[in-house]
Amino acid sequence: MFGRLESVVLKFNKLEEDLGSPDLLNNQKEYQQVAKERSDLVPVVEKYAVYQSLKEQAEENQTLLEREEDPEMRELIREELADLKRRLDSTVDELKLMLAPKDPNDDKNVILEIRAGTGGEEAALFAADLFRMYSRYAEIRKWKVEVLDLHQTGMGGIKEIIASINGKATYSRLKFERGVHRVQRIPVTESQGRIHTSAVTVAVLPEAAEVDVFIDPNDIRVDVFRSSGPGGQSVNTTDSAVRLTHVPSGLVVICQDEKSQHKNKAKALKVLRARLLDSMQAEQEAQIAKDRKSQVGTGDRSERIRTYNFPQNRVSDHRINLTLYKLDMILTGMLDDLIDPLTTYFQTEALRAE
Fold first, then answer.
1. pTM of the model
2. Paired strand residues for 223
3. Would you state the torsion angle of the CA atoms of residues 235, 236, 239, 241, taken in this order, to the nearest 10 degrees?
4. Ramachandran sector of residue 231 (left: φ over 0; alpha: ψ -120 to 50; beta: rest)
5. What is the tens place of the pLDDT at every residue in 244-281?
6. What's phi and psi for 159, nearest 5 deg?
7. Which of 94, 103, 167, 346 could form a disulfide with 143 if both were Cys (CB 3.0 to 4.6 A apart)?
């Protein structure tokens, strides 16, 4: 690990030197790339400097302990040395996580897809609750949320919603949300007060740029039609809704949120590109899984990842056996209490798998 850290420091110093180059200053695109690469290394370099400082202090205290004869002073030095060793161990753990393999999609924006599953209208109402939860979390983190497509029910529930979330490190924070979310509560339509169990599926796709996924226009079939609202009634008098079918893969994307056919097509292309990238990566992960016995942190969206129990104000994440009795706060967007432990867990598992 320390050999890798020394390499990081050398690379950081070289990048700092490059940033002062007149040739680089005249090429703004390349300058920004180098500046970002240097910026990404700053946390590791600073944490390594903390480690080196603590190590130096610990070595000095060890030398003092060996020379000191006064019993009281020796005890004070021992206490300080024990504290330094604890801080050293903690810093080493943090450095290990920082050096963990980084997901190349972590800095990408997100295409969020939420669909009501088993449970009928109750599942649709909970899908709406989840979308509000993620929207509030995005607001807290100053991310921008844009609805790309929405299918509502008559009672205000959501059959399906597709939205883009743009901001800093959105995918890295939301990628472990994909999967089946189960809710246990008394539906508003339940007259006997019985608790029902419903499910909603959440997909989190990294937004793909054109350079990530090339789509041949000849491979796309475009159909236009009139937008429809809850119950199927027409909500537009023009053929503005767009259905894109990617013939080679069979993927179909429909967008009808905008009144402009052009805007709906652009949004549909964004979703289609993200789904194609996700499909490509799923194939790669499947191949990797064949090549090794265990696959860490795939976040398979078919698995039940979390249960929201309203009567007990409880939320449980089944992947890490985490239970919190603050469901009311979680639903207001306070998701970091769930996301931080998940991130740490999967980073640790990735390190073990290396």
1. 0.65
2. 243
3. -50
4. left
5. 888 888 888 888 877 778 888 888 888 888 888 888 77
6. -75, -45
7. 167
